[in-house]
Protein: MBL fold metallo-hydrolase
Amino acid sequence: MPDLPSPPLARPLAPEAPAPGEVRVLQPGLLRVRMPLPFPPGHVNIWLLEHDGGWLAIDTAISGRTTRELWDQVLARPELGGRPLTALLVTHFHPDHIGLTGWLCERFGILPMMTRIEWLMARALWYDSGPDMMAQQIAHYTRAGCAPEYLSFVESRGALYQRAVGELPRSFHALKDGRTVTIGGGEWRVMTGAGHAPDMATLYSAERGVLISADQILPRISPYIGLHPGEPEADPLGDFLASNERFQALPEDTLVLPSHGEPFATLHRRLDMLAAHHAERLDTLAEACREPLTAFEAAQILFPRATGETTQIGFTVGETLAHLRRLQRQGRVAMEAAPDGIWRFRSR
Structure:
């Protein structure tokens, strides 16, 4: 998520963040777990809701021995009362959220709840690791104007998804936008968001005044909004901004529980900050494109430090392409596909 930090929003609204393997009680029947990640932002929050004689977990962390051992510690904590997981809800297909889904489902005899698109994305990525997938990746970064050295790096690293995601169950329970899910006797409304992922599930409880926002609304960084190689004509930033407008209908003092960072209760202010942040970036790119630029060249303007790190180029180029596509849809830039196959963008 290569983005600039935002100013502090408020004093912490919850107990100090738990160390890996520990648990914090936020409200009766609502617990917080924090799992480590080997990549930024370094952790993912797992939320546990009392449900059906046990606990419903929201997300799982990436697959690996360390996270499995930490789950063993969490399940043995006194805050859980010796009760098992009785349900699992996965917000979206990214590895830090879905990675241990198969392991937990097999262990407790449950099936995951997900939106259909996120489930199918996960299944497709888990099984699509052959030469066709790699050719698609290379074509994507070639169009973006990346150097041959980076294309070689992409090819050498191979498919990443299976390394962080265990084998998935063959069945699931579908979540749908606007539907109500009963969890522990309470009603939670599914509100889906797009942009960071195509159909990410968030959960809102009017009774508790809580929004479990997944990666849609984060307190200090903007979620990664990138153009995916498999959908080169998409407008993910437009989808993200339109999705976020829906959350303005919730009360400003809603307690937001994000997947990364600390809980906060300044929902409208944060939504406004995210919109302003991306508007500023769009203006920066529109000005820069007075001379034709490739996506890689434009990424060096938006992310001058990160673009110099080989492992970050995919993120910076993907996010830059998402902003360039939004400018196209706004009629502010035109895209030209040169004979060499590289896309170049020029302000109108």
